[in-house]
Amino acid sequence: MRKLVYYVASTLDGFIAAPDGSYDFLPLEPDVAAHLSAEWPQTFPTFTHAQFGIASPPAGRFDALLMGRATYDPALKIGVTSPYAHLTQYVFSRSLPPSDDPQVEIVDADPVAFVRDLKQQPGGDIWLCGGGQLAGQLLDEVDELVVKLHPIVAGSGIPLADRGFTPTRFTLVDTLPFDSGLVVLRYTAGAR
């Protein structure tokens, strides 16, 4: 069965973006960029592959990604309808019209039921790209959580998982610290 992997950057206090949705305060340091482009190349937007020396199409474990409307919006604002053209992209939105791009499907269905069905279909793992509201709805479906933890305290913003108080335990399986202070933490889901 396919796994749902929530791979995301976060501050120490658990925010993935500023209150306005921007995330430029979470820098991509050179030491981290080299590692991520080698180990997680599929998580870079397609139009950045040449800049980071990533083969096209990049090899990796994912063949699909999920994102919310707010995560998709920055690409749309610069005229990119398929930011991750190397993957099948599912955008959860009740307000966007169907996409003309064959790599992008606009989904207005229940995310949990959709993901449970998607996991049963053949294919590679599924990357939950963001945002916080979608992650909050899907947290119980997440099989692996990979957090690029920045040494920054933001104070407020978009939380890693926006949902009511529901403590959910994950098991730490790997840590990778970088000289820049960022730590990549990899967790698996607890018993369900």
Automatic annotation (TrEMBL):
Record's protein name? Dihydrofolate reductase
Please indicate which superkingdom the organism of origin belongs to.
Bacteria
Q: Which GO terms describe its biological process?
A: riboflavin biosynthetic process
Please provide an example of a Pfam family that matches this protein in its UniProt record.
Answer: RibD_C
Query: Which intervals hold domain Bacterial bifunctional deaminase-reductase C-terminal?
Result: 3-183
**Which organism encodes this protein?**
Micromonospora chersina
Q: Name one GO molecular function term.
A: 5-amino-6-(5-phosphoribosylamino)uracil reductase activity
InterPro entries per the record?
DHFR-like_dom_sf (IPR024072), RibDG_C (IPR002734), Riboflavin_Biosynth_HTPR (IPR050765)
